[in-house]
């Protein structure tokens, strides 16, 4: 339960933070990075809602949180996002998945796995965006994203017929191509 509550807090904060980072990127003229942050914000919200549903299903208390973060330059925000996703991919979700497996809590395993698989994609997308920002090629980044409403899977190109993580039909995906 503590893992689910921590994951809910982290994903709720990430969603709010990335929404704010999106606004900053747009203000700085980095529209395609703003779209990436907007898409990731939506995906993190899916993760938070999944974790919340499992908490409720298991009879736990959903934490009441107020996200705290600082918005800096787009480059600094991308670096912060890379660090956050890296922590989730290398430490947080692997540990949470092991705990859920040990306790035989299948719903937690599913929710954690959805987030874990998507965070790996976000980490790569943020690294590519920082590289583009540093190389002055931001306009070459994708300008449309698709988000799976079941697991938060984030596509930066036209998705296949079904989500590669949850098998949700792509007709249900949320398209992000404007702010």
TrEMBL record:
Taxonomic source organism: Labilibaculum manganireducens
A GO term, aspect molecular function: oxidoreductase activity
Protein name per UniProt: Ferritin-like diiron domain-containing protein
Domain Ferritin-like diiron residues, every copy: 1-137
Highest taxon, organism lineage: Bacteria
InterPro entries named in the record: Ferritin-like, Ferritin-like_diiron, Ferritin-like_SF, Rbr2/Nigerythrin, Rr_diiron-bd_dom
């Amino acid at each position: 339960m503590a893992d689910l509550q921590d994951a809910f807090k982290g994903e709720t904060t990430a969603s709010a933070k990335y929404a704010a980072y999106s606004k900053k990127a747009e203000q700085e003229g980095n529209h395609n990075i703003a779209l990436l942050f907007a898409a990731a914000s939506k995906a993190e919200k899916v993760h938070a809602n999944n974790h919340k549903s499992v908490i409720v299903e298991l009879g736990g208390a959903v934490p009441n949180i107020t996200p705290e973060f600082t918005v800096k330059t787009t480059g600094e925000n991308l670096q912060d996002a890379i660090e956050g996703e890296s922590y989730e991919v290398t430490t947080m979700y692997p540990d949470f998945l092991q705990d859920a497996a040990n306790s035989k809590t299948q719903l937690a395993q599913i929710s954690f796995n959805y987030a874990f698989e998507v965070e790996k994609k976000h980490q790569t997308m943020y690294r590519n965006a920082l590289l583009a920002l540093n190389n002055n090629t931001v306009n070459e980044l994708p300008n449309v994203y698709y988000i799976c409403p079941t697991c938060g899977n984030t596509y930066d190109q036209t998705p296949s017929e079904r989500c590669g993580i949850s098998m949700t039909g792509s007709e249900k995906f949320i398209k992000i191509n404007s702010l």
